[in-house]
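User: Batch of two.

Assistant: Item 1 of 2:
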Amino acid sequence: MKVLFYALFLFPAFCFGQSVNEPDKKVTIGTVHTIPSAHLNEDREVWVYVPASAGAGDKTRYPVMYLLDGKDFFHLMTGMVAELSSLGRMPKMIVVGILNKDRGSDLTPTRSMFSRDGMVDPDFKNSGQGEKLLAFLQKELMPYMESRYNTAPYRMFVGHSLGGLTVLHALVNHPSLFHSYVAIDPSVWWDNHLIMKQAQKALTQNDYAGKSLYYAASNTMEKGMDTVRVIKDTVYANGNVRNNFQFREILRKSRNLPWAWKFYPEENHSSVPLLAQYDALRFLFKTYELNKDLDDPTLTPDYLTHHYRTVSALLQYPVLPPQGTVNSLGYISMENKQYDKAHRFFKLNVDLYPASSNAHDSLGDYYVERGDKKKAIEAFRKALALKEVPQTRKKLQLLEARK
């Protein structure tokens, strides 16, 4: 695997006191993988980002985002994922950026020679290979990722323009592949608006429980046109906006599909991904955030347990409260002399993470605070049986010396 890096050279090296002989330092973002594909009949390059916490020994499983036009959006999306997850507003995720060799082939689900004014667009001479791309994703790329990384079952699909068309095609025709979908200014005009016709039938008849969609529309209207008159307008240049509003009406009739549709009046087709990607992540994971400060007195073990049941339902696999968060809540409660609450947090951590030496050590600290030497010794011995930690050993020896 190659290392994908992004070096920043904002100032000459001597500004930082760097020796001219010192090698440049790199900021590593992800890795480059080249995957042989029988479905595409070629080798396909993908860029993979993993959370910083996914180091050696980490057994956490991470949901996976599959990002179309990866070369264009990899840096933008991975930065957002890293920042929002660090704030607790979404889960940490693996991001897989998919690169194209022939975009007009990969991202068009049907064969159609797009033309305007009698001129055939050469970008679409090989159009209609979108099903092969989805077969590559399902039968080659996903198994590849799942065999090499700690992946969780939850999968997201993100695309812009023709990529947005591919996302909608997957939602309508292959809904089992992903759990959430982000279509940014999708090219729903393709092949005489075929995806709109398909969606009108599928979204109203099929069961989309457990799926969700964020749909973004940019402003590509001619000056002087507005969002009311554009619906009945027939000018070609206003077609994208008109199509997006028409697709919104299809979504309004959908069957149990959670969705959000947003028009960005200040953004054009090229600029809209920046804001839309952020808004999509906030919408799709709006119930993920804890929404309480750790020192909030209403943040109880029961509240925390209920919240992570909600998170588990959102991601459709079991998600436990983070061990570090529960541990911190225990110590905060103990410092506030809320001893019953502190005990419940420490006991919850031991129940959730029975193989954690630190969880048992913290429970031992609680028993020391409460003057229960016998239970403190039991907790420290259990912690040491799991992992030898000098600080825990010292605490145990001090207690045993007082017998």
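Item 2 of 2:
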Amino acid sequence: MTYYYVNELTKEITGPVELPIIPGVGVMLPGNAIELPEALPTAEAGYVWVWRNGAAQQLIDLRNRPVYRKDNGGIQFWYELGPLPDYLTSKPRPNEYYFWVNEDWVLDPIAERTGKIAQINVERDGRLREVVIRVAPLQYAYELGEASSLQQTTLLEWKRYTLKLAQLEQQVDYPLLVDWPLAPGSVKQ
């Protein structure tokens, strides 16, 4: 006979263990132990042996690992033995443009395009705000006839930069790949 301990909460089986033999009585089986006719084989990778319904069975062990909600890709940790409920998966969501369809994450190209355009617009608007701050004093100097030749050249560079920002949509790989123009005075990295 082979003896194992059974965790009271999870019903996880550990062992085999050697139990002491009491003279004249034999082996006393503790309340948290079971006796099996033969040793259990090593559990498959990622599985553990558990005692359920009076029998040893292997269950997947995803405890303390991140799992992901199928509805939004949100991460959470799992603390139970056995398969995940239908609303969870062990596959991480690649990004916010993927949605759970037929047991896997599937890219939604329309959502990706829409999302990328929104991100680009936010970035472009931020850059245009900088243009307004930089151009206003140069424009005032020009309109008052007090702009130096360097200021006039700089003003033209900022205006050309603004035009390039306004033409991002004309780039070949837009919106998946954007070649951002360099602001005047910037150094390309």
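Residues 109-143 form the longest helix (35 residues).
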